[in-house]
Fold NAD(+) diphosphatase.
Amino acid sequence: MYRKPQVMQQCDKGYTMENTDSVGGYKRFERVYPPAAIPEGSVLWFPQQNNKLLVHVHDDKISLLEGDALLIASLPHQSPLYIGRLNGQPCLATIIDPDASLPEDWKAIGLRELYRRTTDIEYNIASYAAQLINWHRISRYCPVCSAPMEPVPGGWGRRCTRGDYSGYPPVIPAIIVLIHDGDRILMGHKPGWGDRYGLIAGFVEPGEMLEECVEREVKEETGIAVTDLVYVTSQPWPFPSQLMIGYMARYKEGTFQPTDDELDDIRWFTRDNLPELPPPSSLAYELITLWLKQQSVKEDAK
Ligand SMILES: [Zn+2]
């Protein structure tokens, strides 16, 4: 079993994330569960076509589609899901027929492409909508007996009409960890990554605590041991349903041993010689940015 780390501390409040809108702002979104009745009047639409979100584009500026039922009435679509309210305004998700031709100023945009082109809260709702739509797509038939599934009232759960199975929208936890020794961070390289290095990450196994997962993944991928685990923040990663859980951990002991085929190199970096970083939409980037801020606060204090 996992032994609790000796130092378990909160992230210093002086180093808060820039991306606080996704946490603080998200409080303004209130989830709604079936069988809530879809309100009449203007709503925010999260329609998907071919796994992309349909948005309004004007002068290269993206905005969510807003309007009543007539907005999508002329397009073949599935019955909308009432998923919540943003500042009191109802939010509806639906699927538009893959072949339907769209109004001229609408555009289908993938979630990765949408990142930072809309507000964080709108992006989070779009990712929630995409996951619920995906859940309805994959839960039509029972995985045990293939009978049709039906909704469980009061939530997004679905159950087999023969009664031998029930399921809920999947959330798949995965950890990602920034390993440091105080002044440097340890990053890994995979074949085919070019000059880019990244943080260690991996899926949580059944029956495993998050801290156990951090220690195991680091050990499996690098051969080294870490200590002083600190939880930092998390990020829904809707490709298709991960929840990334971000940690920082201090290097304890060991040298690099490629114990599986994943990494071909690990290397220490100081803040002045960082390699090409993961994309800004990732939690890895957020953890590295936070660590850099901590370094400059340390530097200023000297
Ligand atoms: Zn069944």
About this structure: The mean pLDDT is 88. The two ends are 40 Å apart (CA to CA). Residues 120-138 form the longest helix (19 residues). The chain has three domains: 32-138, 139-169, 171-301.
